[in-house]
Design a protein that fits this description.
This protein has an eight-stranded antiparallel beta sheet, with no helix packed on it. A six-stranded mixed beta sheet has the order 3-2-1-5-6-4, with no helix packed on it. The protein is built from one helix and 14 strands, in the order H-E-E-E-E-E-E-E-E-E-E-E-E-E-E. The chain is mostly beta strands. It is 11% helix and 46% strand. The chain folds into two domains: 86 residues, Copper binding periplasmic protein CusF (OB fold (Dihydrolipoamide Acetyltransferase, E2P), Beta Barrel), CATH 2.40.50; 97 residues, Copper binding periplasmic protein CusF (OB fold (Dihydrolipoamide Acetyltransferase, E2P)). The termini are far apart.
Length: 218
């Protein structure tokens, strides 16, 4: 009887180990990847960030997102956000499952716009130097408030600029020039207005088309 008991105990132990090991091994490893949004395309469900962490610092990575599967929250989790609230220049933290980097991101923590240094201005391009990466703009509206016209310089990285055209938002090559009506999204960095996003407005007679350019400068 004792021998039967030992056999039963042995079989039970093996079954527990056999069943338990796969369950334990299936627990996913979630890594947090922090970076600055370079561009986001809600329609195509993709976004690119420039990694801020030591591992991969300065590297750009593309991730998949959707309105229904990707939860977006601010750092205090007090606001109801969606992927439509994400934009170039924001700092975000993505929960990425190890080995499933090509799958849809389920959670993104984003700095609230009020807490960030992100700003925007609208006006007319007076001059653009693509070699030095400087746009001279005749400002009309800053952060949604009408202002007296003034001339300001905005800086961008010529070698890392990514350009898009709506409504498809596929990468295109643009030729920005004096007289173009634009909106510039920027942050202050080293006492300079560093450009992260430029939207080129179409002429009044063809208002259905806009063009957006986004730099990958940190």
């Amino acid at each position: 009887m004792k021998e039967n008991y030992l056999k039963a105990f042995f079989v039970l132990t093996v079954l527990i180990l056999f069943i338990g090991i796969p369950v334990f091994a299936s627990v996913p490893t979630v890594n947090q990847v922090q970076g600055r949004i370079m561009w986001v395309d809600v329609k195509l469900g993709t976004m690119q960030i420039k990694v801020n962490q030591a591992a991969g610092m300065g590297e750009t990575r593309d991730y998949r997102i959707t309105r229904y599967e990707t939860r977006v929250k601010d750092t205090s989790d007090r606001k109801f956000l969606t992927i439509d609230d994400l934009r170039a220049g924001e700092i975000v933290t993505l929960n990425v499952i190890d080995g499933q980097e090509n799958k849809i991101i389920e959670k993104i923590i984003s700095e609230s716009l009020e807490a960030s240094d992100f700003q925007e201005v609208k006006g007319t391009i007076q001059a653009i130097d693509t070699q030095k990466g400087i746009i001279t703009l005749d400002e009309k509206i800053r952060n949604g408030v009408d202002e007296n016209s003034k001339i300001s310089n905005f800086y961008f990285e010529p070698n890392n600029i990514v350009e898009f055209q709506s409504p498809v938002l596929k990468p295109v090559n643009l030729d920005l020039k004096s007289g173009d009506q634009v909106k510039i999204q920027f942050v202050m960095k080293d006492e300079k207005q560093q450009t992260y996003s430029i939207t080129l407005y179409a002429p009044a007679q063809t208002t259905t088309t806009t063009v957006t350019t986004t730099t990958s400068t940190q």
